Amino acid sequence: MSDPNHGEPVEPSTSPDAATNVDDVVGRANEGLAEAEAASRDAVAPQEPAHHDLSYIEAAGPEPDATAETTSDSAATTVAPAVSETVVADDRTAVITPSEPTPPAAETERVEPVVAPAPAPQPIFVQAPEAPRPRGNRGAAGLIGLLATVVFGLLYLGAALGLGAASGDVTVATLGSQALDAVTSWWFWVPVVVFFLAFWLLGAIINRGRWGRWVIFGLLVGAAAYGGHLLGQLFEAPFWSLTPSQGAELIEGQVLAPLAIVAFILGREITIWFGAWVASRGARVTELNIEAQREYERTLEAGPQLHRM
After folding, report:
1. Among 38, 97, 270, 308, which one is most buried in terms of CB atoms within 10 A?
2. Would you call the peptide bond into 46 cis, given omega within 30 degrees of 0 as the criterion?
3. What pLDDT is recorded for position 307?
4. Could you give phi then psi for residue 90, rounded to 5 degrees?
5. Which residues, in sequence order, are CB contacts of 55 under 8 Å at separation 6+?
6. How far is residue 56's CA from residue 93's CA, in Å, rounded to a whole number?
7. Among the listed residues 63, 61, 57, 86, the one whose alpha carbon sits nearest the alpha carbon of residue 71
């Protein structure tokens, strides 16, 4: 087909309908750009909205006196460096260009978790076990000494009543009254108290010692009981009403008295036999002390132990 214009340039249509269509398209483009900016502001941290100055550049048709003819699709168009959207309608081109380039959304900085440095190992202080205290045997010697004293008192009273019966001073009828008088007199209680003190003192000295020491040093307890008998006779006199010569005569008469000798023998023998009981318990206490010391040494060798609940 032949061109009805015979190769002559075609002027772009500048009808009012075409201009209206271009304005509608540009308006819709502006609305789309506003919506895009609002979505960008919602997605990124709040920041001052960027104001855009939209420039509209229309491709003008050639003026009648223009020397160079241009076609509608090759119209000269000035475009800003950052073009957001280009709308083409009919023979006009609208370029929407923001006056200021929209800064890109700031990338969210990745915050590295701050890891606290591992604390330096703290020293653990442990309390060293206390060394075991050696157990003593003095308390047991005192308690056993009380029993030995009761036995000594009963035997000493029996010996006194027996000697009185042998001399005719004590009869069956007067046995009860004589016994009652004896337990309320100085001559009976002084040697008994002296025996207990001597026995307990010896037990405190020997402590966990062997029985052989009780056998040897039992003589001292017997001697104390003997001296207690003499002292009891002085209290019974009483000595504060005696002259020195009378006191000396009294002591001389009791030095070899049968009851004084009985007191010495009872004091020594009872000390030996009850001392065997004290020594036996002392041996058990010694074994317990040795075992406790061994356990203490094993604990020290093992070192501190961490017990977790």
Report:
1. 270
2. no
3. 57
4. 55, -120
5. 80, 95, 96, 97, 99
6. 9
7. 61
Distance from C-alpha of 97 to C-alpha of 85, rounded to nearest angstrom: 7
Length of the chain: 309
What the block records as the tokens of 78 is 């000035």
Q: Fill in the DSSP letter of residue 12.
A: P
Question: Which among 71, 113, 108 has a CA at the least distance from the CA of 93?
Answer: 71
In Å, how far are 8, 156, 229, 259, 287 from 262, measured between CA atoms?
171, 7, 10, 5, 38
Q: Answer whether 25's CB lies under 8 Å from 94's CB.
A: yes
pLDDT digits (tens, 9 = 90+) for 226-250: 999 999 988 888 877 788 888 888 8
Please say whether the beta carbons of 232 and 191 come within 8 A. yes
* Integer-rounded Cα radius of gyration of the chain: 65
For 14-27, the pLDDT digits (tens) are: 444 544 566 676 67
Q: With both helix axes pointing from N to C terminus, report the angle between 211-236 and 186-206 in degrees, rounded to the nearest 10.
A: 160
Output the CA angle 131-134-138, nearest 5 degrees.
155
The closest alpha carbon to 93, from 33, 21, 16, belongs to 21
* Cβ atoms of 182 and 161 closer than 8 Å: yes
Distance CA 58, CA 208 (A): 126
Residue 246 structure tokens: 């009378």
Q: Whole-model pTM?
A: 0.56
Residue 228 phi, psi (nearest 5): -65, -35
